[in-house]
Design goal:
Distance between the termini: 31 Å
Mean pLDDT: 90
Shape: elongated
Helix content: 10-25%
Strand order of the largest sheet: 3-4-5
Oligomer: single chain
Structural class: alpha+beta
C-alpha cells in the first residue's frame, strides 16, 4: 500500500498492485485496473518510487540468485 495526497491536501492509501498507468496531465493521474482514476499532488516519479519501494517490501521483485551449487 502507498499513501498519496489528493489535490485538496487529504491523504489516502491505495494498493500499488492495482495501478495500471500513471500520467501527468499536468497533474499526476493514476488509473487503476478497476477503471477508477485518482489525481494526486505527487509527481509521476514519486508515485513510481513509492510503488517500487512497496514491491520490494512485499518481495514482489524477488532477489537475484546469489548462491552456488543447488537451490
Amino acid at each position: 500500500m502507498i499513501t498519496l495526497t489528493r489535490l485538496n491536501g487529504k491523504t489516502f492509501t491505495i494498493n500499488a498492485l492495482y495501478i495500471e498507468t500513471v500520467e501527468a496531465f499536468p497533474d499526476t493521474t493514476i488509473l487503476l485496473t478497476n477503471g477508477k482514476r485518482y489525481v494526486v499532488k505527487e509527481t509521476v516519479e514519486e508515485v513510481y518510487n513509492y510503488s517500487l519501494s512497496f514491491y520490494g517490501k512485499v518481495n514482489l521483485l524477488g532477489k537475484p540468485y546469489e548462491g552456488g551449487g543447488t537451490r
